[in-house]
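Exercise 7. Given the encoded structure of a 369-residue chain, write a plausible sequence.
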């Protein structure tokens, strides 16, 4: 998926394969207290490699019981996840992986010689895990369980009971639970998603500025975990990118202040609340060809379509004929689905959907004459 996106996203007229929120500008952050002048005067040396103490302390305040020693600041959530793989996984280990999902954790453990065992979220059960598959995937051999929560791409949020059941199983089997919470705070019309943090000492959380905050370009993410695990991730960090960018660390210190975080989450919510009805109305216009279970959080709409045409082929047609990029379900572990971005400007969304509809109607015509 990443390769498809990086190949085409700047060549198509409309990129609806995105997964974040229309990004915040530096000037907006200046309005929240970022001192642009001090950035102009900043000597561009190395920054503290695990994140400045000020940033880690600010982040720790959002995770009860955590201190700066429980936090490693990384280059995006993806690096946070990657460092945890390097720190925790060895050849022969098993990783349980929720599907559909952000697919990084399908690939990285395998490249390190671990075996990945998927368990499905079930659309017919409101995207709850298939518990039988979950229990088959998470056994005493499991080193780590990876979830995105809220989930990419379904936008689903687990019930408190489902969260407890997952944590219990990790405790029973001695597995780490890696909860990627980069979409936490991007709830559309519901209360804030509870964090897994604090539910057990087997829990490790990753997150970052890229999704709910709307600031992917500064590439700031973080790990929150037991101090020993975090220390090992810091060592791995030394060998990869050394540390985060100094300007980004300064930007992040402003963005994660509680009052600014809430403003940024509210901005995200307003964008998503405005766009979701546009998507809803559009999907309803296909009289059953599209099944759309609305996201509860995040900027992604996953839709099932009623045709045997592979999702890659359908998405390619949309790209070639309409210059619109979407994500085929097959790239997310789910054939028969397409993923469309919800986080852009309304007029951009409307035009993108108009173009996608031309190809979907052509597909319906092909199937039913
Ligand atoms: C669940 C999840 N985690 C991590 C990432 C990557 O985040 P970052 O840009 O912070 O590296 C994504 C991007 O789509 C994602 O969906």
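Solution.
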């Amino acid at each position: 998926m990443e390769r498809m996106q990086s190949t085409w996203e700047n060549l198509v007229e409309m990129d609806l394969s995105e997964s974040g929120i229309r990004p915040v500008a530096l000037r907006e952050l200046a309005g929240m207290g970022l001192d642009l002048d001090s950035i102009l005067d900043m000597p561009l040396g190395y920054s503290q490699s695990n994140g400045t103490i000020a940033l880690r302390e600010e982040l720790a305040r959002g995770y009860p019981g955590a201190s700066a020693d429980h936090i490693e600041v990384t280059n995006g959530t993806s690096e946070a996840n990657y460092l945890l793989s390097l720190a925790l996984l060895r050849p022969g280990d098993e990783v349980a992986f929720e599907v559909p999902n952000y697919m990084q954790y399908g690939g990285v453990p395998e490249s390190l010689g671990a075996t990945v065992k998927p368990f499905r979220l079930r659309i017919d059960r409101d995207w709850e895990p298939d518990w039988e598959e979950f229990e088959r995937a998470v056994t005493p051999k499991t080193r780590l369980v990876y979830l995105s929560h809220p989930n990419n791409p379904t936008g689903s949020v687990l019930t408190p009971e489902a969260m407890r059941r997952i944590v219990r199983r990790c405790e029973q089997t001695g597995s780490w639970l890696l909860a990627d919470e980069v979409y936490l705070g991007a709830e559309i019309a519901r209360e804030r998603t509870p964090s897994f943090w604090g539910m057990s000492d087997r829990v490790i959380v990753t997150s970052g500025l890229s999704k709910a905050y709307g600031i992917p370009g500064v590439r700031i993410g973080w790990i929150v975990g037991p101090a020993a695990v975090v220390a090992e991730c810091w060592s791995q960090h030394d060998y990869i990118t050394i540390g985060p960018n100094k300007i980004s660390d300064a930007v992040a210190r402003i963005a994660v202040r509680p009052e600014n975080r809430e403003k940024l989450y509210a901005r995200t919510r307003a964008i998503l609340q405005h766009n979701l009805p546009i998507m809803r109305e559009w999907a309803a216009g296909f009289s059953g060809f599209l099944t759309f279970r609305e996201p509860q959080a995040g900027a992604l709409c996953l839709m099932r379509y009623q045709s045997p045409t592979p999702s890659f082929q359908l998405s390619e047609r949309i790209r070639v004929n309409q210059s619109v990029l979407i994500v085929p379900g097959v790239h997310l572990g789910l054939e028969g689905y397409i993923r469309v971005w919800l986080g852009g400007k309304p007029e951009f969304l409307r035009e993108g959907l108009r173009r996608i509809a031309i190809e979907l109607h052509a597909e319906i015509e092909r199937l039913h004459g």
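Remark. Residues 19, 76-78, 102, 148, 152, 180, 182, 208, 210, 216, 221 surround pyridoxal-5'-phosphate (CB under 6 Å). Students should compare their own answers with the one above.
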